[in-house]
């Protein structure tokens, strides 16, 4: 039985070209990038090249990129770092109710330290209401943190407009772009983004490596005590092979993004059209138009996610019910609750996220298997 992997929002595999670029830095080019001799200088040069590639992908300057261990650390570095360094200006942060736990739990941790956080509601499609954002800003607001693309329902926020609001109000704007990078074009200058988080394993790079973009001139504190790596903003010996891989992966993703989007949109729209027309009791979560190109999020009447995923797995289909980072909890998804779903709707969801390896034949098989297993599960009740 062929295994069909459609959980690319959770992670992607490492592309062959990326792995090939990484391999020399595990052995022959193994130097510490902080060392002054030749193999150390070789490692430092590799970091600089990767930093330029990451910067080019989002239209930033290379010295505005700080490598981290991934999206969660990047969110922490930016939100905590900016909040700590600018608390003399204010103590108020604005975010949304559908952010990734890396943002929500960071904000909750800051609340325990005396910071005030506004958690904006979203509409039924997952959009932050811009007027509510404007009204939430006050004289003590120092940071707005709104994700570019939701990891569960795929909704793409109007980041450019949010950036304009933040700039007009003289408030820093951070976006968690972990799901967006490699899927949609992000231009930090055009969109007035002051800080951005990304993670390589979402765009066919290795796990355990990410980056923070923080605009020059913005004060932020380090949150890891140690050495002077990453301009004294992120202590710890740099993971050179992973950084090299991230640079190669984002370079490829940027060069192929238009064709990649066309392919994924075709698979996404085929799946949505077929399941709506051929299976009763299906609800599409998230906005139909402004969503990640490969994202399909369904609420399925009369079906529980756990049983559905088990049966799909038995058929060789690897999908999910939502975020991999919240799969250990039995509570309904905070994202689905925030867009107004009832518990039974939230507990009967399926997320399909297509990627580079998927084909239209995969999508056809998935639709046929869904019809079979949904009918079977409904008849078991």
Can you give a write-up of this model?
With 381 residues, the chain is of the alpha/beta class. The chain folds into two domains: 4-12 and 257-379, Aspartate Aminotransferase, domain 1 (Alpha-Beta Complex); 16-252, Aspartate Aminotransferase, domain 2. The protein has twelve helices and twelve strands. Strand 5, helix 6 and strand 6 (172-176) form a beta-alpha-beta unit. The longest helix has 39 residues, at 240-278. The mean pLDDT is 95.
Share of β-strand residues: 5-15%
CATH topology of the largest domain: Aspartate Aminotransferase, domain 2
Uncertain ranges: none
Instruction: Identify the strand order in the major beta sheet.
Output: 2-8-7-6-5-3-4
Distance between the termini: 28 Å
Task: Provide mean pLDDT, rounded.
Answer: 95
Give the class-level CATH name of the largest domain. Alpha Beta
CATH homology superfamily name of the largest domain = Type I PLP-dependent aspartate aminotransferase-like (Major domain)
Q: How many structural domains in the coordinates?
A: 2
The topology string of helices and strands comes to EHHEHEHEHEHEEEHHEEHEHHEH
Overall morphology: globular
CATH architecture of the largest domain: 3-Layer(aba) Sandwich
Reported for the largest beta sheet, the result is: 7 strands, mixed
Rg over CA atoms: 21 Å
Number of strands: 12
Percent of residues in helices: 40-55%
Sheet/helix structural class = alpha/beta
Number of helices: 12
């Amino acid at each position: 039985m062929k295994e069909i992997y459609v959980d690319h929002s959770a992670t992607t595999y490492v592309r062959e070209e990326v792995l090939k670029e990484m391999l020399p830095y595990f052995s022959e080019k193994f130097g510490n990038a902080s060392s002054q001799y030749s193999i150390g200088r070789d490692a430092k040069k590799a970091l600089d090249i990767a930093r330029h590639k990451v910067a080019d992908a989002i239209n930033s300057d290379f010295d505005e990129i700080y490598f981290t261990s991934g999206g969660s650390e990047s969110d922490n570095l930016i939100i905590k770092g900016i909040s700590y360094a600018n608390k003399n200006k204010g103590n108020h942060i604005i975010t949304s109710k559908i952010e990734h736990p890396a943002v929500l739990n960071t904000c909750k941790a800051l609340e325990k330290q005396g910071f005030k956080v506004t958690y904006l509601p979203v509409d039924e499609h997952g959009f932050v209401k811009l007027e509510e954002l404007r009204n939430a800003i006050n004289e003590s607001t120092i940071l707005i943190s709104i994700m570019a693309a939701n990891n569960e329902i795929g909704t793409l926020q109007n980041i450019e407009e949010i950036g304009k609001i933040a700039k007009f109000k003289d408030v820093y704007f951070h976006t968690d772009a972990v799901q967006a990078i490699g899927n949609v074009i992000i231009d930090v200058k055009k969109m007035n983004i002051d800080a951005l988080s990304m993670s390589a394993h979402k765009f066919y790079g290795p796990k355990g490596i990410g980056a923070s973009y923080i605009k020059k001139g913005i004060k932020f504190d380090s949150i890891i005590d140690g050495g002077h790596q990453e301009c004294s903003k992120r202590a710890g010996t740099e993971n050179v092979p992973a950084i090299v891989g991230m640079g190669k992966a984002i370079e490829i993703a940027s060069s192929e993004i238009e064709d990649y989007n066309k392919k994924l949109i075709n698979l996404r729209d085929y799946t949505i059209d077929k399941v709506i027309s051929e299976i009763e009791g299906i609800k599409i979560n998230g906005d139909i138009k402004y969503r990640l190109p490969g994202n399909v999020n369904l609420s399925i009447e009369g079906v529980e996610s756990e049983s559905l995923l088990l049966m799909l797995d038995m058929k060789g289909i690897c999908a999910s019910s939502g975020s991999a980072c919240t799969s250990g909890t039995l509570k309904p998804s905070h994202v689905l609750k925030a867009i107004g779903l009832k518990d039974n709707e939230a507990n009967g969801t399926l997320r399909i996220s297509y990627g580079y390896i998927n084909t239209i034949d995969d999508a056809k098989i998935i639709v046929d298997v869904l019809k079979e297993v949904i009918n079977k599960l409904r008849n078991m009740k």
